[in-house]
């Protein structure tokens, strides 16, 4: 029972290549537009003047800019809706390779936007690169969760999030004025997102497709066994093959589930509510408000204009460091504890940040608000940022996983889009009290996790569904026992 699988070279490289090729870009494109925003807005204005002979009105510029920011999560939402059909048709690895179209094309578009004298190109490209992020943020955790042995699933499941934070940090570093965050460098900075995609296109084809996909969805026993042997670095993979067959057997009654089946299936009710709660909590807890508007928080905290970019990079570095820590502690501490601690820290930070921003007049308060932002980032990196993806992979079995990721992803991006769109208005209307709202959301999510979400570390996918079976008031039987009857709609 306690056969611990080790991290093999093949598994490690597959993890690094898919995380760099896909997850890195998601983070990069979240942050890439923050530092050079002034110069990109100047370009919008200059282009407008050249076309119409008069400067753009401020309100129109604000609208165009908030579109440039928020079209990205909107694209992410479209990408999430494509997850289930694509991973079922092309496989996990196949989808990641196909997804690079949505990165290379907009990279070229954004790179030539200035020469083409068109700001529309940037806005359209942000939607397309958003589709890429929406697909990769769901497919990479699914692919890696299915490649990993159960004792490494948590640690490997955190790696995509680690690359998202490295992507954010890279964009922040390149965005320093003296590097690319200036009026000549920004088109190149936006276009660089195509490079990780090319790396992935060249290297990922040499690595195996998910053995679970091959066995359970394609019924291809030979390829699944070969893939598993390569991933485990050992000929003896019988136990894991048997485990997959058992899972396959217990699911045959359900068939491949569509999102509608998923919503109506009693045996998955609490898993579904849980991933919705966690993904909403993750995004509505204010992390993106802090990223999108870090610069303005720092300047209202009294940091010198010329130093803001370095504080931002510092925050990004803290985020990467804490996510690396999460990779190493997630198997020991467990998922549930990290979620509780993370949301707890975020809740307290938001409350303190509100106080600090309200009483800016004292000279040391600005430093308190910077500290709050950094502590918040630490809390978010340890739990809310990293763990929901791991848990989404773990709470669902093969037939329901694509549909579950589609639901989780749609909630994730819808919430992200909402925050990006609503926060500027919240900020102008509520001022420093905006963060009280985030504080309550963190608290509510914390209570939910404490009451409902079980610990899933070191459990097989089947054991986890049995833990939920009690709460869902259904029974899951395996082996030769009769399976619980499920309506035939599930069959495809």
TrEMBL record:
<dbReference type="InterPro" id="IPR005829">
    <property type="entry name" value="Sugar_transporter_CS"/>
</dbReference>
<dbReference type="Pfam" id="PF00083">
    <property type="entry name" value="Sugar_tr"/>
</dbReference>
<feature type="transmembrane region" description="Helical">
    <location>
        <begin position="156"/>
        <end position="180"/>
    </location>
</feature>
<comment type="similarity">
    <text>Belongs to the major facilitator superfamily. Sugar transporter (TC 2.A.1.1) family. Glucose transporter subfamily.</text>
</comment>
<dbReference type="InterPro" id="IPR020846">
    <property type="entry name" value="MFS_dom"/>
</dbReference>
<dbReference type="InterPro" id="IPR005828">
    <property type="entry name" value="MFS_sugar_transport-like"/>
</dbReference>
<feature type="transmembrane region" description="Helical">
    <location>
        <begin position="272"/>
        <end position="293"/>
    </location>
</feature>
<feature type="domain" description="Major facilitator superfamily (MFS) profile">
    <location>
        <begin position="15"/>
        <end position="457"/>
    </location>
</feature>
<feature type="transmembrane region" description="Helical">
    <location>
        <begin position="308"/>
        <end position="330"/>
    </location>
</feature>
<dbReference type="GO" id="GO:0042383">
    <property type="term" value="C:sarcolemma"/>
</dbReference>
<feature type="signal peptide">
    <location>
        <begin position="1"/>
        <end position="19"/>
    </location>
</feature>
<feature type="transmembrane region" description="Helical">
    <location>
        <begin position="63"/>
        <end position="84"/>
    </location>
</feature>
<feature type="transmembrane region" description="Helical">
    <location>
        <begin position="186"/>
        <end position="207"/>
    </location>
</feature>
<feature type="transmembrane region" description="Helical">
    <location>
        <begin position="96"/>
        <end position="115"/>
    </location>
</feature>
<dbReference type="GO" id="GO:0005353">
    <property type="term" value="F:fructose transmembrane transporter activity"/>
</dbReference>
<dbReference type="GO" id="GO:1990539">
    <property type="term" value="P:fructose import across plasma membrane"/>
</dbReference>
<feature type="transmembrane region" description="Helical">
    <location>
        <begin position="403"/>
        <end position="426"/>
    </location>
</feature>
<feature type="transmembrane region" description="Helical">
    <location>
        <begin position="365"/>
        <end position="391"/>
    </location>
</feature>
<keyword id="KW-0472">Membrane</keyword>
<keyword id="KW-0762">Sugar transport</keyword>
<dbReference type="GO" id="GO:0070837">
    <property type="term" value="P:dehydroascorbic acid transport"/>
</dbReference>
<feature type="transmembrane region" description="Helical">
    <location>
        <begin position="121"/>
        <end position="144"/>
    </location>
</feature>
<keyword id="KW-1003">Cell membrane</keyword>
<dbReference type="InterPro" id="IPR036259">
    <property type="entry name" value="MFS_trans_sf"/>
</dbReference>
<keyword id="KW-0813">Transport</keyword>
<dbReference type="GO" id="GO:0055056">
    <property type="term" value="F:D-glucose transmembrane transporter activity"/>
</dbReference>
<keyword id="KW-0732">Signal</keyword>
<protein>
    <recommendedName>
        <fullName>Solute carrier family 2, facilitated glucose transporter member 5</fullName>
    </recommendedName>
</protein>
<dbReference type="InterPro" id="IPR045263">
    <property type="entry name" value="GLUT"/>
</dbReference>
<keyword id="KW-0812">Transmembrane</keyword>
<feature type="transmembrane region" description="Helical">
    <location>
        <begin position="432"/>
        <end position="453"/>
    </location>
</feature>
<feature type="transmembrane region" description="Helical">
    <location>
        <begin position="337"/>
        <end position="359"/>
    </location>
</feature>
<dbReference type="GO" id="GO:0046323">
    <property type="term" value="P:D-glucose import"/>
</dbReference>
<dbReference type="InterPro" id="IPR003663">
    <property type="entry name" value="Sugar/inositol_transpt"/>
</dbReference>
<keyword id="KW-1133">Transmembrane helix</keyword>
């Amino acid at each position: 029972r306690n056969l611990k699988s080790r991290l093999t070279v093949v598994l490690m490289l597959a993890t690094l290549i898919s995380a760099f090729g896909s997850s890195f870009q998601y983070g990069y494109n979240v942050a890439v537009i923050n530092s050079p925003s002034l110069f990109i807005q100047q370009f919008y204005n200059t282009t407008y003047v050249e076309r119409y002979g008069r400067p753009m009105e401020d309100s129109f510029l604000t609208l165009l800019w908030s579109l440039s920011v928020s079209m990205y999560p909107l694209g992410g939402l479209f990408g999430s809706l494509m997850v289930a059909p694509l991973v079922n048709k092309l496989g996990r690895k196949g989808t990641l390779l196909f997804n690079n179209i949505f990165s290379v094309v907009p990279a070229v578009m954004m790179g030539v936007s200035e020469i083409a004298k068109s700001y529309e190109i940037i806005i359209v490209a942000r939607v397309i690169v958003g589709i890429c992020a929406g697909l990769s943020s769901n497919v990479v955790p699914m692919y890696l969760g299915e490649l990993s042995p159960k004792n490494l699933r948590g640690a490997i499941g955190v790696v995509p999030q680690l690359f998202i934070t490295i992507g954010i940090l890279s964009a922040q570093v390149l965005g320093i004025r003296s590097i690319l965050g200036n009026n000549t460098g920004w088109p190149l900075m936006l276009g660089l997102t195509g490079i990780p995609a090319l790396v992935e296109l060249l290297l990922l084809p040499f690595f195996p497709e998910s053995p679970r996909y091959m066995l359970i969805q394609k019924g291809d026993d030979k390829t699944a066994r070969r893939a598993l042997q390569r991933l485990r670095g050992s000929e003896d993979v019988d136990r894991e093959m048997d485990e997959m067959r058992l899972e396959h057997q217990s699911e045959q009654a359900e068939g491949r589930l569509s999102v509608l089946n998923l919503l109506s299936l009693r045996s998955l009710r609490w898993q579904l509510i849980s991933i919705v709660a966690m993904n909403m909590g993750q995004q509505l807890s204010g992390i993106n408000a802090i990223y999108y508007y870090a610069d303005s928080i720092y300047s209202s905290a009294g940091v010198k204009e010329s130093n803001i970019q370095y504080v931002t990079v510092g925050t990004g570095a803290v985020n990467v460091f804490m996510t690396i820590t999460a990779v190493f502690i997630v198997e020991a501490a467990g998922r549930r504890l990290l979620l509780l601690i993370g949301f707890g820290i975020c809740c307290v930070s938001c409350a303190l940040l509100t106080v600090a921003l309200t009483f800016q007049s004292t000279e040391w308060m600005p430093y308190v608000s910077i500290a709050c932002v950094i502590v918040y980032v630490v809390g978010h990196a340890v739990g809310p940022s990293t763990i929901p993806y791991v848990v989404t992979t773990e709470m669902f079995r093969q037939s329901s996983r694509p549909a579950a990721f589609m639901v989780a992803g749609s909630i994730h991006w819808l919430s992200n889009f909402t925050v990006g769109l609503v926060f500027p208005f919240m900020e102008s209307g509520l001022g420093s009290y905006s963060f009280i709202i985030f504080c309550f959301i963190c608290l509510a999510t914390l209570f939910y996790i404490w009451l409902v979400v079980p610990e899933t570390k070191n459990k097989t996918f089947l054991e986890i569904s049995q833990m939920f079976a009690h709460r869902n008031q259904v029974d899951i039987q395996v082996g030769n026992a009769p399976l619980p009857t499920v309506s035939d709609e599930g069959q495809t």
